Amino acid sequence: MSRLVDSHVHLDDDAFTGDRGAVIERARQAGVGTMVVPAVDAESWPAIRDLCARHAGLHPAYGLHPMFLPHHAPEHVDALSSWLNENRPVAVGEIGLDFHVDGLDREQQRHYFLRQLQLAREHELPVIVHARGALEEVTLTLRRSGGLRGVVHSFSGSEQQARQLWDLGFHLGIGGPVTYERAQRLRRIVAQMPIEFLLLESDAPDQPDAAHRGERNEPAHVADVLRCIAALRGEPEADVAAATSANARRLFRLD
Fold first, then answer.
1. Burial of 103 (0-12, 13-18, 19+ CB in 10 A)
2. 16: left (phi > 0), else alpha (psi -120 to 50), else beta?
3. Where are the beta strands (DSSP E) in 162-217?
4. pLDDT band at 1 (very low <50, low <70, confident <90, very high)
5. What's the CATH class of domain 4-207+221-252?
6. What is the mean predicted confidence (pLDDT) over 38-51?
7. Domains of the chain, residue spans
C-alpha cells in the first residue's frame, strides 16, 4: 500500500504528552508516514516547529485558529508573517471561522481570517481552513479573496457546498466522522466525489472513527478511514491511498 498522509493532526496537543513518540511510531506501522501538524495559536508555533524538526515525515503549518480567539492579539498576525518567512511551513493553518461555539466574536474572527488569507497569498502557501457552522461564509470569503488553494478540513456540508469548494480548487479533508453509518450525507458525497479533491485526516486527538468511539484519536486510525472510504467508493484501498497521498503531496508541496 502507498504510504498514507494524515493531512491534519494536532500532535503537539497535551493529550499526547505521555506517549507522543509511540503515537508517531504506531502511525508509521499503520502506513501513515507523513503528517501535517497545524497550529492553533502563536504560543504553539515553536513547539510545532521543534516537533517537526525532531521527527521525519512531520510537516508544520502555522496559523491562528478561530476557536482560540481569546489567545490571539492583533500583533500575532504581524508575528505570523515574520514566522512564515523564517520557518517555512507547508501551509497557513489552522485558520477560518467557527460560528458553532457561543461567545466567539464573529467580527474578530473575520478580521483574523481575512488577514491570514492575505498572508497565504503573499507567501504563496495553501490554507488549512476550519469552517464549523460557517461553511457558507467561509466559501464566499475564499471566492472573494481569490488566488488561494487549500483544504476545508473536517468537511460536513452538503453536496452543493462541496461542489462550490471544488470549483474553487479546494480539497475536502475527510476523517473519522465518515465511518459512522449515521453520516449518510457525508458518505454519499465521499462515495461520488472526484478523488482529486479528497484528503485523508485524523484531526487527532479529536474525532475518532467508529471503531474507536470515545477514545483518544491517533493518526494511525487514518488507515481505518481509508478502508471505509475505499468501501464506500467500491475502489481498491491501494488506489485510494495512492490518490489521496498524491493529492496531499501536491497541495502541500511535500516533495
1. exposed
2. alpha
3. 171-174, 198-200
4. very low
5. alpha beta
6. 98
7. 4-207+221-252
Q: What is the 8-class DSSP label of residue 100?
A: S
Calculate Rg over the CA atoms of the chain. 17
**For 227-247, how does the pLDDT look when each residue is reduced to its tens digit (9 = 90+)?**
999 999 999 999 999 999 999
Long-range contacts from 136-143, C-beta under 8 angstroms, 24+ separation:
136/161, 137/97, 137/99, 138/96, 138/97, 138/113, 139/164, 139/165, 139/168, 141/97, 141/110, 141/113, 141/114, 141/117, 142/117, 142/168, 142/170, 143/168
Supply the DSSP symbol for 60. Answer: E
- Rounded CA separation 255/247 (Å): 12
Is 38 in a helix, a strand, or coil? strand
> What average pLDDT score do residues 141-151 get?
97
CA dist., res. 95 & res. 97, Å (int): 7
Question: According to the model, what pLDDT value does residue 2 have?
Answer: 54
Grid look-up 511551513 returns 89
> In what helix (H) or strand (E) does residue 128 lie, and over which residues does it extend?
strand 127-130
